[in-house]
């Protein structure tokens, strides 16, 4: 019996897991708030679910809606001085009405802010790295080519 179908099926499962489409129903979001240089919520946000547990003020919380957000306040006149800038990451009660992930300027709590909406497990971290998906995809293609040529 050939092992090719088993290896191909296993590869597809790995791709689904890496892309986030096979995650369970429980989605989590990072929750934190920082102002200026105080706190760990601002960008360069380098935490994952494990390292966030060890950082005071940063949590990975369950999110029933599956929609996470990141809000940056004070980007107007404070742009050159980070003191007035605040970054907050949170779970949203619901996503945008069109269901599209995006970042844009909007009015939130009577202030103009830069807000990002995303759907997925811990998606409100810093920008997600596409490199790991490219590396995984290239590895799978090379493996599939080698397996099929056996």
What does it look like?
The chain has 150 residues and is an alpha+beta fold. The protein has a domain at 28-125: CD59 (Ribbon). Helices cover 25% and strands 29% of the residues. It has three helices and six strands; from the N terminus they run αβαβββββα. The protein has helices at 4-19, 49-52, 131-148; strands spanning 27-35, 59-63, 67-73, 86-91, 102-108, 111-119. Strands 2-1-4-3-6-5 form a six-stranded antiparallel β-sheet, with no helix packed on it. Helix 1 (4-19) packs antiparallel against helix 3. 21% of the residues are buried. Residues 15-23 and 128-134 have low confidence and may be disordered. One of its GO terms (cellular component) is side of membrane. Residues 1-24 form the signal peptide. Its main location: membrane.
């Amino acid at each position: 019996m050939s092992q090719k179908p088993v290896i191909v099926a296993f590869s597809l499962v790995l791709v689904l897991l890496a892309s986030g489409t096979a995650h369970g129903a429980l989605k989590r979001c990072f929750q934190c708030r920082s102002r200026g240089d105080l706190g760990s919520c601002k960008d360069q946000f380098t935490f994952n679910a494990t390292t966030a547990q060890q950082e005071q003020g940063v949590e990975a919380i369950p999110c029933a809606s599956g929609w996470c957000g990141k809000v940056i306040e004070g980007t107007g006149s404070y742009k050159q001085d980070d003191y007035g800038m605040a970054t907050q990451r949170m779970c949203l009660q619901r996503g945008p009405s069109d269901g599209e992930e995006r970042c844009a300027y909007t009015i939130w709590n009577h202030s103009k802010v830069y807000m990002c909406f995303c759907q997925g497990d811990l998606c409100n971290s810093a920008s997600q790295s596409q490199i790991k998906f490219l590396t995984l995809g290239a590895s799978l293609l090379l493996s599939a080519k080698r397996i099929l040529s056996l």
